[in-house]
């Protein structure tokens, strides 16, 4: 068969020549006015290891989790220096920012996932993956206990242990219910692909339920009342998606109940999207008001039952009950049990997330790293080191610090204490030496220790913890693999800032987060974006920017094509309402 | 935004002008060398009812099921004459012939389903659909008892009744386990979309399980032993799909276990695909042998446990046990409980399927029809009516039948007893009157009753029941809606054959199945087909014919585009192995 053999050969060519194929798809996508670029080329510097070093026994690295942090670490880790084993209950990476789109079928679940084995296959296949859940981290014996979550046929072999030289914890977080009663039993969450699929089926169920015979109008209304708790980006995007799904697709096939649908968004703060610029918050609130989405700010949920939730208005303490057909709970992140247990072991039992230093190493351990939503960087305060800094800078031991002496240590300070730069920006100061001016703003030749302390005493207030986002996690994973890959090189030639509280230099530069902006899709082909440089953009054009960025950021060309196809399909045919 | 508003307008245009859009897609598809045509134009003759008739109270029709038969009935039923209510536990129609493709991700589940509400929307939205399971048919009181399968929030309202004037049973069949112990607990089936999705996840699970640490090679082999019971078209196609999935996709990402995978097909008959032409059977067997699929014919499964199945070789009675990782059971069809219960009510308790007459009306009822896999047509035997036929034909009451007298009733005989035509064909007779020749083959002027009887006594052996296929079900649904729509017209002007056992004419022509051929995809881009006129076609070109036919037969343009996209995606990127 000519056609068949032609296609076979073409397919073989594409498999063998991914670059050629990418160029092809790039052209296709460009003609569709989408900015897509290949980011599959790794930018990591690889350390050329000599044959002797290679012959040494490879160090064992165990990675827990295949989310943004874990996958980004795996994409770049140098397998010629490390033996890598990965444990995750899911054998795929999910592009989580598109989860709200999956809840309503704008994008299919399968379009946003990529098998982990596809990702590690590119790394010469020397990374081992086990589909299992980590039950316990045994920091004393350097091993992790895992259990396969495949329930059948394993006999007594379901649990196994892995030993490690280095452990990378990237298990993510779970939903934080703030111990509100009834939430785990009666609410839907939106953290995993399965969650999004469940919500999709349940939305359809609510409509099917509402059109059954023999119900009162009140009952139909209850079935069609969708409540979202949490006015962060995820909750807001889900509300917007749901509104579009109902108005664009469902009302045409369930015309008999189209006037009974209600969407309510409950937010405990005074505004939705309150981590964004306030222009975005008010734009979103206005849009939702026009769309008929009932936004209730300043309300706290006290409990959720099967049929209603009880809400307290924070300002005047009134408590009332709302009947519901479906509640999606989307508020903050909480710690997974395996991480809480590990925190007890390393003396962090009283904290809310696993604390690491600025090099992402878990405090209280030598060889355990934590990335992404399960961890938080405990930024060293400059005031803790103020005496050492002064002493190190005061080269002539005069007891005073001149501007030129200070300038010698400025670079190291800026790297070691990033809050200094944030502080300068917040005070609109151009240069670090401006810090040494006197309270009236006049330049000083030199400062003594007390003047130095008072010049820097407000700096630490600018040390903020990083948000629990995909961007942070991905950058941390890439950073850590870079450190791992350059361990030997940087041992010989350290590249980090000098140690003020000790001698010598840090081996690596600490992790520094670079914010590329964030989006909030608001439905009706509109979105809001906060871009670097305090730029704010809102409206239809921002939605197209969103399409471009999200298409380009896909983890593989496969998912990129699928996601773009899904968007096109939605434009042409609408969303599917089959309950599968 | 110019682009946005352009696309909005384009999308609006497409929604408003489906014909224009179809032409567009048709061009796109044609350029991809696929023969696709629109079959969305209904070919049914509509009866123009006068205003008086319309004002009469509409008769209530309740349809159970939204498979091939039910949907095909709904597509054409005239809603100006009937009030139609549909009850089905699934709110979608599934293109079941592609289910084996869904098991391995060649085609996505969502690409082969179309919401029932989309299908009935085209019928002016006057058909009511309820997502519920029919629990009981109460033939005495003309009502059905249904229960919503949505488990939450319905309080005491989960059950409801619907009254009917006419009932159409099209609930399909369930898997026939032949009461083999352990089958329902330990086997996967392949009848519903959910079944296919479960199999897909389980195949991936088997591979994930097999690569876990600490297993012996024997255990890994067991996990990777896939057993299919039943060598019919479904079982064979699944075996072929699975083999392709493993060889084309899974071995590259699970290279460590690629030599441990085994596929075994167990068939009780002497050949697989034994309802097909024997050239196809042996082609399939040879292809499977080359592919390394272990085909065991002449074996009966005695029981299935969690880890093994016990098999008896029919020829010499030996019983042995096979360890397995996954068993797919695909043998024959059985009766659903609600149908069995109804059969008891109408005195068919001893039968294996609901018997209808040739007009699809359930025997023993006046207003209940049954279509598709749940029913079987009980073809009237010509020998039962032989005296009446002779009497009716013998116009001069001479006690003998001349050739010209016989010719007067031939047309009615051929319509009423289709087995006559099959018999003629099997005996290579050109004309019906050839039946009247004497045993030596010489023409006779006339025959008496005994000669007439002996001429026709072997005819009934050719009355065969129809296969349980989508083609039969769809034709039955279309036939029945045509009858319903022409009820009034055909009451006044009957169009069926004359009644030999009574007076007058039958109102409608009986249902006649027209076989358009059947396919058996065999993997590796090869297929076999049995086409009308005893044509047999095998190989790569047949696979392309299969692609064309299956693309053209999709129920909507949406699913057509999705299915073709899925095939293309599989060619370019392979199948996805994420376990979602």
TrEMBL record, chains A, B:
Subcellular compartments: Mitochondrion inner membrane; Peroxisome
Keywords: Calcium, FAD, Flavoprotein, Membrane, Metal-binding, Mitochondrion, Mitochondrion inner membrane, NAD, NADP, Oxidoreductase, Peroxisome, Transit peptide
Cofactor: FAD
GO molecular function, one term: calcium ion binding
Domain of life, source organism: Eukaryota
Main localization category: mitochondrion
Catalytic activity: a quinone + NADH + H(+) = a quinol + NAD(+); a ubiquinone + NADH + H(+) = a ubiquinol + NAD(+)
Protein EC: 1.6.5.9
Membrane-related topology note: Peripheral membrane protein
InterPro entries: EF-hand-dom_pair (IPR011992), EF_Hand_1_Ca_BS (IPR018247), EF_hand_dom (IPR002048), FAD/NAD-bd_sf (IPR036188), FAD/NAD-binding_dom (IPR023753), NDH-2 (IPR045024), NDH2-like_C (IPR054585)
Gene Ontology terms: cellular component: mitochondrial inner membrane; mitochondrion; peroxisome
Limits of the EF-hand domain: 381-416
Bilayer-crossing regions: none
Homology family: Belongs to the NADH dehydrogenase family.
Protein name, UniProt field: NADH:ubiquinone reductase (non-electrogenic)
